[in-house]
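Input record (one chain):
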Amino acid sequence: MIGKGKTKGSSSASGSQSWRELTGPRRKRLNSHQARRRRLGRIVKWGLALVILGLGSWAIVVAVRSLTKRDEPILINTPSREIEQLIFETDGVLPDRWLGQVVELKKGMTMMEADIRAMKVLLEAQPQVRTASVERMFPNSLKIAIEEHEPVLRLAVQGRDGRTEQRIVSRAGTIYVGIGYPKGALSRLPFMEPYRHPDGNYTPIRGMDRVAELLRAARREQPEFFSTWRVVSLKHYSGEEDLLGQVIEIRSTQIDQVIFSSAKSFEQQLDRMQVIFNYLARRGDPSLKRIDLSLRGSAAVQFKSGRVSSF
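The corresponding structure, as predicted from the sequence alone:
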């Protein structure tokens, strides 16, 4: 039977009903000899850690102060050795003596003292040099590699003393004296008659890439005829391919004038010229004065007799 409200929740169990009693007796702190030793060991360890941390912090502070007050600079890099060897490579003909005249290395100069960027700028300022690279080759060498301009034609200019002098014209249109070339190699290059700009100057020379293609094609397709070429006239070739009627004229010991269109395939024009040569050879090879290959669909041939024919 359920009791009345005032006795609800009461227990018939005897004894105290406090929480301390319900949770059992409170554990007492151990105070044995072994417990004291363990506590002492932990205290000593923490103390040593704090001492070490303090010493480390003090050492860092001292090191920073000594570095900030140091008068002499600290040497970070290892001492650089003197330059003992200069390695020179080129894809052209420039000799070693030329390099010695352009790049002057002082006696005792070290690897790190050499200003390789300034050397590169100096080398690429030379007219015969297209590109240059300068590289440190540790422990004691500098390597200089040169790419030279490709010689395409010769140019006759008037020197300061009034005498005619020879210059080289590169594929890039650069004009330079030409150092190290065998005389025989230069003698096989035709001379150039330059295009004159409206102001009367012949520089800058444009379109030499296209001229070089004609020379290469002629040398490959008709080497015997190419060997007779003496002058490549750019009188009517400004190098501006957008302009109509741009032609390149060739003067040779075999024919007074051969006209090539700069806008048409040089290989096709050379093939047409070979057809004309073969045809005339079968007819007795009469002397030719002029061949115009720039016409559309045909070529005009003028004989030294004055007769003109179309092919």
